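Researcher: Please predict.
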Amino acid sequence: MPTTGAAAAGVVAAAGSLIYAVRGRSSSLLAPSVYCGDRRRPALALTFDDGPSESTPALLEILAGQNVHATFFMCGENVRRCPAIARQVVSAGHEIGNHTDTHARLYFRSPGFIGGEIGRAQETIAQVTGVAPKLFRAPYGARWFGLRAAQRRLGLLGVMWTVIGRDWKWPSPRISRLLLAGASNGAIFCLHDGRHTQRSPDIRATLQAVETILPALKNRGFQFETVSQILCPTN
């Protein structure tokens, strides 16, 4: 019979394994997932979560001015509220991913709930934009049991991140410093053009950080690609 200490150690180890499975950026235990791209090339992928929002067009202007294409992980509820903006993202040449329907937390939820959240978002995005996403990012980066089946059913690859900008709470100089310090071949940056399903969110810190880092990273020799491009090099 195990001693009390051994039993406690087993509980701690099991808890650690679960935390890694749910939140670990390199984990694919609960569903196929990536957190970086090709490390051989000086390319980065900008990603934006929680959109589209009424604030997204300002971001699109900045990206267009730098001739940069990004990947936008959209919430179905936001797409229904801002259909024209969702289509604007696509027409500008950006990639679209699935970020669930209502930005719900998936952990401790049933497989049916998880599949419904992802499936409704997938249907909405495809109907509104004409594009069926191939990529998925879980809200808060937290996966759960049942996600593998949902991703398989919809043909989705999970995407975590190399660096998350914390742009929902930090000022732009701090966001910029974090991203510039974390830039490396194949890095995937996570930022936000929305705030969950909030209307007209204030994303000024995000916009200012993007304006700062794009020319700085280009001067360091990096190019910007979508997530699909950074995962599938052309040479």
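Model: The beta strands are 33-34, 43-51, 71-74, 95-98, 135-136, 157-159, 163-164, 188-192, 223-225.
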